[in-house]
Predict the 3D structure of the following.
Amino acid sequence: MFPGVLVSKKSAEEVRKLLKNKDVLDPNKAPLHEDNYVIFPIKEEKVAEARSLGLRIVYRDFKVKRKIKSYKDLVQIPENLKKYLPTSFDQIGDIVIIKIPEEVLDYASQIGEAIIKAYKSVKSVYLDKGVKGPYRVRDLEHIAGERKTETIYKEYGTRFIVDVSKVYVSPRLAEEHKKFSKYVKPSEIVFDMFSGFGPFSIFAAKKGASAVATDINPYAIHYLYESAKLNRVEDKILGLVSDCRKVARLIKVNHVVMNYPHGSISFLDYALESIKTPGYIHIYVIEYNDKITQTADNIVHLIENKGYKAKLVEISCGKPYAPYQAYYGVHIRIVGD
């Protein structure tokens, strides 16, 4: 039996606030309801203080609240299968995208419902069935919550409006978007060759730079402009539904961003065609962890073989992608030609 205070339902909320403010309320136990009364659990060492407030002390068998550490505490699946439950997922605004191992795929809806119950900020849960199609976006299957795919997503105070079924979004790259912007100065120009929904461009614009963003996905450019409006930088961004190779020969810029990790290197000639000297190329690759330094050096040598002077400034990010592989940013300063 544990101590509590008996109060009428009419005064319950007022008393609850008082107990909380006085640090008398026991947050680890659930209140009880008896007829027209509420019984709030209080800390045993605070009984005298509660009595001094003129409150009636009673003793009841309060239910101890279960502390939820993760959705795994709530999901209803056989105990022998819990070892297969995913340990992580991507939350984009109020939408969760999760990959589920085959061993527990039959319990996808139960996993989704548990996530919604465990995390108050989540409204929708989707199963990630892989990146597919010409625009390389996630193939999603709704498994719980609201059937919506558009949301407001934040990175370091920067807001984006995105549709997770129409543009690829990875919150794991938020730190890299911010890091890139540290290279950018006001009045400089950025060429975002594979812009997607535009995080690199918008972070640059918030630094006072201008950005030319290209993508073959029209939805990406649509959401780039919507996000630019949210952040009041629409006058700093030109978004084009276009192949970046067609635009490269028409512009001269201080920074080229090449966020196409499976194929950026093959576009290096076009990046160099648009770069001013001195300037920077920020190229993103997926590479084995023990080979990234050599790969970065090889990119520098490729640039030098094309008649430019180049210097490796930084290898950043290193976000895991697959066993022994990661997503890396290679930042190269083009000194001259």
Summary: The CA atoms of residues 248 and 274 lie 5 Å apart. The chain has a mean pLDDT of 94. The two ends are 82 Å apart (CA to CA). Residues 292-305 form the longest helix (14 residues).
